[in-house]
Design a protein that fits this description.
Order of helices and strands of chain A: HHHH
Number of helices of chain B: 4
Shape of chain A: elongated
Low-confidence stretches of chain B: none
Radius of gyration of chain A: 17 Å
Oligomer: heterodimer
Distance between the termini of chain B: 45 Å
Number of domains of chain A: 1
Helix content of chain A: over 70%
CATH architecture of chain B: Up-down Bundle
Strand content of chain A: under 5%
CATH architecture of chain A: Up-down Bundle
Number of helices of chain A: 4
Structural class of chain B: mainly alpha
Number of strands of chain A: 0
Radius of gyration of chain B: 17 Å
CATH topology of chain B: 3 helical TM bundles of succinate and fumarate reductases
Structural class of chain A: mainly alpha
Number of strands of chain B: 0
Number of domains of chain B: 1
Low-confidence stretches of chain A: none
Strand content of chain B: under 5%
Largest interface: A-B, 41 and 38 residues
Mean pLDDT of chain A: 92
CATH superfamily of chain A: Fumarate reductase/succinate dehydrogenase, transmembrane subunit
Chain lengths: 112, 112
Amino acid sequence: MNQRLEVKLWLAHRLTGMALGLFVTIHLITMIIVIQGGISASEIMERTSSNALIPLFYGLFVIASAVHGSIGLRTVAQEVLKWKGKSLDILVVGFFLLLCCMGMAAIRGLMS
Amino acid sequence: MNRNRDTSAYWASFVQRWSGVVLALFLPAHFYVLSLSLQGAEVLEEFLHWTDMPVVKFAEAGLVVLLAVHLLGGARILTIEFFRWAKWHSNLILLAGGGALTCGLLFLLRAI
């Protein structure tokens, strides 16, 4: 196992965790405030396109979630399934790219 | 070492790990739903009508609890790792559990 890579991944997991602490807090508070008896597509799209900083916020949110989630799943696969090596790393990179692409598509959809 | 503390630390770690796995695997579905608006607002609207069912609202509240518990549990880990506040350990676990349930309940009360 490459120790330097493991340290970098641990640090990336912690740093994205700190960023997500802020993003998730804002997301949770917003959800609880706006949900009021259900929400419509037009309400979501109106809200997300109201401010130029919102796509930036959600862009950073998507990237931080993709990094944090992928590294977290890799750790669980190593510890629980005892799965290690290149095959796991390739799958995790694939999952990271999938999350980034799907997340950016979601933002593009909500801004359109 | 205190046996109760060991047990609570075990369960805190268990919940942190598996809430993270569920949330990471939920992300592609979440992004997919939001990107439905790329096919037109009415496509997303149709899906959001489906989410008005009470059983879906309860499932959403469950996801809110998982998100909040992972957030607060993550904050607990960072606090212990970076500030060495290990003596607050049990209180932080209680705070994470209580805070997460409160978030889920608040969401449910607003959503229904």
